[in-house]
Amino acid sequence: MSATVGDVVAALEAAYPPALAMDWDAVGLVCGDPTEPADRVLFAVDPTPETVDEAITSGAQLLVTHHPLLLRGVHGVGADTPKGALLHRLIRAGVALFTAHTNADVADPGVSDALAAALGLTVSGPLAPEPGPALDKIVTFVPVGPSIGAVHAALAEAGAGAIGNYSHCSFATAGTGQFLPLDGAEPAIGTVGRLERVAETRLEMVLPRARRRDVVAALRAAHPYEEPAFDLLEMAPLPSSRGLGRVGELAGTESFAAFTRRVADALPPTAWGVRGAGDPDRPVRRVAVCGGAGDSALDAAARAGVDAFVTADLRHHPASEHALAGTGPGGPTPALVDVAHWASEWPWCGQAAGVVTAALGGSVTVAVSRARTDPWTTAATAVPSGPDTPAHRTDPTEDLPEASA
To answer: Which architecture does CATH list for 5-105?
Structure first.
């Protein structure tokens, strides 16, 4: 039975949930009918004339890209505009377009896992972890007896006590409660003006912070006391396995020059090549990677205590300041490897193709585009000559001749 566009989209959104995308991003199905068949799917980094041509000529019914075609708001997609023309070509040819962008960046596994795998790293976790879900803990005190079951059930119904695949999770301990009803009180136990001591059960349950109001309301409604006592505690966020970048280790230690060569050999060649900033003889084993533009993660790489950081689109000033710092909270600042943006994200195409194959098996034929859609097409390196040529280069990402691609 043939898979549909909707089947492929469902598999990809399970792996790269749209809710993980940043609020400025544009992900999901750009064009196409979810009910139409999708026997062939092509994966690429960019939706460009080259990859659209490849999708159409190969007979693919769905083109999956990492970068969005329509990232910024548009008021029209006329065929007289470059992006509008691409959309019209796709629609006329019956090819759907789907994008997974920042949601694929932070997913587990995601873009940086694919980059790490290409470099031979064993990943230990994200470089900049996303915080886990915001949780509270509610603690209340219920008189011993049938009321404890009613309160517990009401809290669970309101959303408390859910941990993973379990519900109604709680912890209870026995103790003694004490209170003195004052004038105007209508105590469920005891009398006004007399100190009461009551055998009670301390009940603790976790809850999503978003359910706080509902859980407190359920407690007040189900508790037998006129004024139930309770504590509501905000729990410290735990790092999740999702987040930007990844940290991992090589199987053995190698020089920074050799590692830069490894990066160049692992990624598709581009005019940009591979540039290194650091002592060529520096030992490298623990490495951080971030697919795409990653100079915003320079501080995180320094804190991680890695030997090298591989990313794309490093700018002069952040790289210079990073090198000037010398040391950071994790020790010496890592050496830097700067690669082309497209090349750093291309390994993800194979990962995403594997997601679809694992979910839909032989009902879909997948292919990864090898069209180089990196915008840089040529490069030249100046040969120093003449008295006016600087004798020493201060570019922090100075080329390592033996490691350029």
So the answer is: 3-Layer(aba) Sandwich (3.40)
Cis ω on the peptide bond leading into residue 109 (within 30° of 0)?
yes
Query: Taking the domains of the chain in order of start, what are their residue ranges?
Result: 5-105, 108-130+243-345, 135-234
Tell me how far apart the alpha carbons of residues 111 and 119 are, in angstroms, rounded to a whole number. Answer: 13
CB atoms inside a 10 Å sphere around CB 50: 14
Tens of pLDDT, residues 47-99: 999 999 999 999 999 999 999 999 887 888 899 999 999 999 999 999 999 99
- pLDDT at 312 > cutoff 70: yes
CATH 3.40.1390.30, domain 108-130+243-345, yes or no: yes
Backbone angles phi, psi at 25, to 5 degrees: -85, 165
pLDDT in tens, 173-190: 999 999 999 999 999 999
What CA–CA distance (Å, rounded) separates 48 from 342?
Answer: 12
Q: What is the model's pTM?
A: 0.81
Return the structure tokens found at 348: 């993800």
Q: Please, are residues 376 and 271 in contact by the beta-carbon 8 Å criterion?
A: yes
Instruction: Name the token pair of 350.
Output: 């194979």
C-alpha span between 3 and 7 (Å, rounded):
6
